[in-house]
What we know:
Residues 2-237 form the ABC transporter domain. Residues 221-278 are annotated as: Disordered. Homodimer. Forms a membrane-associated complex with FtsX. GO terms for molecular function: ATP binding; ATP hydrolysis activity; transmembrane transporter activity. Part of the ABC transporter FtsEX involved in cellular division. Important for assembly or stability of the septal ring. With 278 residues, the chain is an alpha/beta fold. It has a domain at 90-155. The chain is built from eleven helices and ten strands. The strands form two sheets. The protein has a six-stranded mixed beta sheet with strand order 6-7-8-3-9-10, with helices on both faces. The chain has a four-stranded antiparallel beta sheet with strand order 2-1-4-5, covered by helices on one side. Helix 3 (96-106) crosses helix 4. It starts with a strand and ends with a helix. The protein binds adenosine-5'-triphosphate. Adenosine-5'-triphosphate is lined by residues 11, 13, 15, 17, 35, 37-43, 248-249, 253, 256-257.
Amino acid sequence: MIRLDHVFKRYPNGREALSDLSLDIAAGEIAFLTGHSGAGKSSLLKLIALIERPSRGRLIVNGQNVAGVSRSRIPAFRRRIGMVFQDHKLLHDRTIYDNVALPLIVAGIGGKEIGRRVRAALDQVGLLGREHSVPLELSTGEQQRVGIARAVVSKPPLLIADEPTGNLDPDLSLEVMNIFRRFNEVGVTVLIASHDLLLLEHFPVRRIRLEAGRLAGDSPAHVIASEPPPNPMSEQAALRNDALRTDTHPPAAIARDSGPANLLDPRKLIEQNEGTAP
Ligand SMILES: Nc1ncnc2c1ncn2[C@@H]1O[C@H](COP(=O)(O)OP(=O)(O)OP(=O)(O)O)[C@@H](O)[C@H]1O
């Protein structure tokens, strides 16, 4: 499903975010991608979604070598990947129905089919009946569930999520994670980048750990299940230290980072599909 062979990612400013990364995630697997801030988690997800391209090495996603995906084929490539973000990226001036329908409209799917699929996706995240609300009428957890419904409405075989529980309280985090689990149980491959200790503790699934862009650990689910839970004190201290470090995210890198990520902004998606994007 996802295969990396000696993948490197170097950004134009010379920062090497991923170094010689080799990894295999099989169809139907669920895994966490962990590592301190700046370890390369988002960069890896961006390569998988073709927001960025590898500088070196081979990357296969959904059976396709990304090197062979031309710019014009990127929208079709992305239709087979559901993406969930910490900040939902919902359009606040559109209804929940419109937000979830967006990927189908962009894909040129017809009206009746859209209605059926949107309702099915909202049902799967427990929000059927909220179609006519706008995002601000929903709680943060509900908004995140709308983001998940939008990610799965095209029935992608692969779901990737970048810190999807970052803004949620513990109960909502577990609820969101259970939704991912249910999709995985019906065959969707799921990769979740997360710092969330609660999730890591409650869900003994494969854990792929990056450190300074390199693979620092890859523990299968059965090993995780037999390990003691992570030590919250030491992990939190490490995360606090990360938050205080300034070298991992220099302002220039953050500014540049917002460029490619914007490609996934729903409005950009529409523009891209209509050929109005630069
Ligand atoms: N667009 C960019 N241009 C230049 N450097 C970048 C860019 N995006 C990320 N980086 C750098 O690449 C490294 C890895 O960043 P990345 O965002 O992938 O890490 P992360 O593990 O997702 O971190 P976090 O948990 O804080 O989101 C960091 O040193 C970062 O500053």
